[in-house]
Amino acid sequence: MPGNFIRRGLRRSLIGQREIALENAIPDLEHRLQSLKELGVYLHIPFCNQICPYCPYNKELYHPDVAADYASAVIREIDAYAHLLGKAPVTSFYIGGGTPTTMLRSGLAGILERIYDRFNMRCSIHMECHPNHMNEANLKTAASMGVRYLSIGVEALQDRHLRTLRRPYTVKEAIAAVHRATDSGFECVNADMIFALPGQTYAEVEEAGRMLVAMNPDQIAAYPLFVFPYTPLGRKDRINGYKSAGVLRRRKMLRILEGAFYGAGYERTSSWAFTRKGIPKYCSVTVPLYIGLGASGSSYLRDVFYLNTFSVGGYINALNSGRSPIALSLDLTEQMQMAGWLYWRIYETRFTKASFNERFGKDFDATYGKLIKVLGYMGFLGEYDGEIILSDRGAFWLHAFEDLFSINYVGRLWGSFKAEPWPQRVILC
Length: 429
Ligand SMILES: C[S@@+](CC[C@H](N)C(=O)[O-])C[C@H]1O[C@@H](n2cnc3c(N)ncnc32)[C@H](O)[C@@H]1O
Ligand code: SF4
What we know:
Distance between the termini: 13 Å
Largest sheet: 10 strands, mixed
Bound molecules: S-adenosylmethionine, iron/sulfur cluster
Radius of gyration: 21 Å
Helix content: 40-55%
Shape: globular
Structural class: alpha/beta
Strand content: 15-25%
């Protein structure tokens, strides 16, 4: 399989490991958390009102009783961290899912109150929302809880594609939801769209780009449809006779969208996101070190990466009986930390070589100079006065690369957690 061959080659040359395996071990968190100068927090809400056939995220159908138990368990997890964190400032906070807005009126307020009470919060909230939840009352509630950055999963701008994706609203309703959000005074409203949908034409992609820009959100994130093998879409491998769009077709579609977004004054702020100039961007956790709360919450603390169990029941039971919800962890060598750092800085589209030196005390050129030169020859990025900037071509291929890794990794993790909430060992590659 060429995919496996490329993955193995990159793993050996970039991270120097024969295999990457997560183990069922709880890392020593005390000294790691107590030495933090700042951190980010991710909170996972694993509930949705319906399950979309293409969705790779950890979620299950919303049920009010389970959501209430989940809220109590998250509060226990917050308390456990609060003891160890002390006064370290939290400078980035992201609530993702699933659909966080399912818990807007059933437990989210209590979780946020505890977080603001026990952690040293120095930031506002970024949160994902579903178009069907974006009524005036919910928008006010979200704002009153401290949400200043909002992302709405619009996904498609033609009703036939919304139906294929089993999204429970029309284009007209999605547009109205975005307008209500942009009229509500948030710092940044992001609209998500997916392209390369089953049977989608170039003209439809162009129309979707035009319609999104006309809604005037502060930011647009455009993803090609990724097919994850463990989703209903991946299992069937086709919707309406559709096979995944090839690389060249996706690339041409992304070019069409880039034309629409750049033409309307948006600039690229991550490999898939385009933000209006001068607007602070909506994004996931922005600081290098973070903890993840909730089922499947993942944490990265410099030399260790660890994951909570994906099982909502397993997560609730563990916390109710005083056990840790951490299911798997991976110790990271310096080479792995550097490779991870480089990946995320490129993903953010620009970084200075000096920031690598600040983080690792090493010369960037001596470590990655050759690789950056090769990527530069290929037109993926350029260097301007010590700053590395990703090109449009690089952004596209970065995602082809991510596709190659993440679909494989996420699939292995999912497969393991589906079979067993507390797997002993998961070999990622
Ligand atoms: C957690 S979901 C969105 C929040 C909310 N649950 C909703 O559906 O509106 C985050 C985003 O990931 C993107 N996404 C989900 N599955 C995808 C897939 N298979 N391929 C590409 N993008 C995907 C969608 O754009 C989606 O809005
Ligand atoms: S796309 Fe959103 S609503 Fe649909 S299953 Fe995934 S997280 Fe839930």
